[in-house]
Amino acid sequence: MRYLLHLKRDYYAGALMILIGLIAAHDGTNYQIGSLQHMGPGYFPIALGAILVFLGFLIAVTAGTSDTSEARSLPHAEWRGWLCIIAGPAAFILLGRYGGMLPATFACVFIASLGDRQTTFKGALILSTSVTVFGVILFHYLLKIAMPVLTWGGV
Amino acid sequence: MIETALQDLWYGFSVALEPHNILWCFVGVLVGNMVGVLPGMGPVATISILLPLTFGMKPVAAILMLAGVYYGAQYGGAICSILLNLPCHPPHAVTCLDGYPLTKQGKGGTALGITVIGSFIGASFGITEMIFLAPILVSVALKFGPSEVCSLMLLGLLAGSTLARGSPLKGVAMTVLGLIIGICGADIETGTPRLTFGIMELYDGVEIVALALGVFGIAEFMKSVNQNVTFDTKYSNVKVRDLWPSGADIKKSIGPWIRGTLIGSLCALIPGTGPTIASFVSYATEKKISRNPEKFGTGAIEGVACPEASTHSSVQGDFIPTMSLGIPGDTVMALLLGALMIQGIVPGPQLISQHPDIFWGLIASFWIGNIMLVVLNVPMIGLWVKMLAVPYKYLYPSALFFVCIGVYGANNDMFQVGLTLVIGVFGYILLLLGFHPAPILLGFVLGPRFEENFRRAMLISRGDIWVFVDIRNHPISTLFVGLSALLIIVQVVLWLRRMKWGPRVQAVPATPSEAEV
């Protein structure tokens, strides 16, 4: 079973590399390709894309034969953690643009910390408050990063 | 030669001892030691997080600090391995084998003491190696034309991706992916925007900070969240006076220290073989030549002394190809080169002559930093032990904030934060598919220079691709290409042998490599 999973994973891995290679190569065709002597801007993307397609093909063909010790590390789906870790920075972007550093920092840390199953509501609150205080002092007052502490409706 | 080296070193000390440089060096090793101890944070993630903060600093201070994080983390990583049996940092994974049994026997303090001394010996040798070897390499490298530079990069990239962990094929794929990401943005010659998909913000290319923090920050957090590692701290109560090893232990360790140091310094010179490989090789060697190899794994002090000395000499030696040739051997070195490039400094053989303050200041700071680390580790051992208990649930949300604000602060641009997030999710998909994304950064840093030199080489040779293996006019380039071909052939032969024996469960002691990037 593990072996099969590993096999399947390598097929996907190869397919992803082929896809990226094709995208790069296709994008390269939009520009002048030139010759080997006078390479245009399109030459390298096409060449690298082709190499990546080739590598992806090799990965898929040799699926399951590479390093079997890797197969044991397949993690369980961890949707809660994943979503919170994605939502944290997303909140930072949104609130950073429309609310300032204070709410952005608080929301980012608070949401992200909810991703851990052992975090309590109170624990998350304490953590995000202290990181916010520390962060605003360090980044706004000491390092003077250009982001208002608190605003309304955009910079 | 020794005289000029000493003179340069003297100058280096005068740079490194300037008050603000010494301060940043201290900050670097302190932070490094701290994250080395913390389970779940590695030097790569830390250096990426600190990278944006260095934009406003002077180049010397920036590089001293970032380098300090790297070798400081090695000291901390040893504490983590010996006291908790946690191989959070790959180079110290092998130290667990004998370090933890020693801890269980109540000799954890001795093991740490032996480690600190061994680390200092290893590091000192690595630094000396750098002082004498780097200028020699530079004098050779200054004669390189574009074709030599190109084939050297090819060798570096191939070695970096095939000798690293995981499947070599996937490693090479990651390098090519890195090269592709590296050429994203305006073309150096014509200014044509490439691979930008119409997004204006990508015109300047992908920021190294966004790439590094996406792949080694966000993707790592997604991997580690809720993967609670249970560890018990009941043995980790170590006091300062436990640290001083007995005379018998020191006597037993002298041989392993020296052998480990030599192995580490050799590994540093082979591109792609960093401290991790050095520590594994030296442990295996020590076990082989030992009179009672059965003691290894049950708490042999030699099994701690040797890998630690080799890790540290290799860590310092790692800087040689980076600083003298501009070819990074691993991810951390790629990040450091990136930091230099952001400061407007072109890496390569001309670095030592154009920026002697950076090169010699860095070397001098290694020594200062290592002495600081010995001082930090001995009396403060109790504090470090306490830090082992900081849970991941507090660590990653705070780190995530540092990622966001760091990327934003680099350019005051929210778009980059979004890009980091996208790269992070993509990086996690790569991890799930069994890729080790570290070589991406190697490809990314070298990509633009590789293309530039390749184009130039082709222009000079009038489009003759065989110029790289023209043994009469370009013997050095031919040598590099030959070595690259050898690397590929070795990998294919290894693969064919594995095919013959069939996919089997590996007999190698499980490489505890999943824990880090």
Q: What is the radius of gyration of chain A computed over CA atoms, rounded to a whole number of angstroms?
A: 23 Å
Show the largest interface: A-B, 80 and 77 residues
Average pLDDT level of chain A = 83
* Total count of domains of chain A: 2
What is the averaged pLDDT score of chain B?
83
Approximate helicity band of chain A = 55-70%
Characterise the protein shown here:
The complex is a heterodimer of chains A (155) and B (517). Chain A is mainly α and 155 residues long. Chain A is built from five helices and no strands. Chain A is 65% helix and 0% strand. In chain A, helix 1 (2-28) packs antiparallel against helix 2 (43-61) and helix 4 packs antiparallel against helix 5. The model of chain A has no long low-confidence stretch (mean pLDDT 83). Chain B has one domain. Chain B has helices spanning 2-16, 19-37, 43-50, 59-84, 93-104, 108-141, 146-162, 168-182, 208-224, 247-269, 275-289, 302-317, 319-325, 331-342, 351-354, 356-377, 381-387, 392-411, 414-432, 438-460, 475-501; strands at 185-186, 193-194. Chain B has a two-stranded antiparallel sheet. The longest helix of chain B is centred in the N-terminal third of the chain and has 34 residues, at 108-141. Chains A and B meet through helix 1, helix 2, helix 3, helix 4 and helix 5 of A and helix 8, helix 9, helix 18, helix 19 and helix 20 of B.
What are the defining features of this structure?
heterodimer, A: 155 residues, mainly alpha, 2 domains, flat, B: 517 residues, two-stranded antiparallel sheet, 21 helices, disordered C terminus
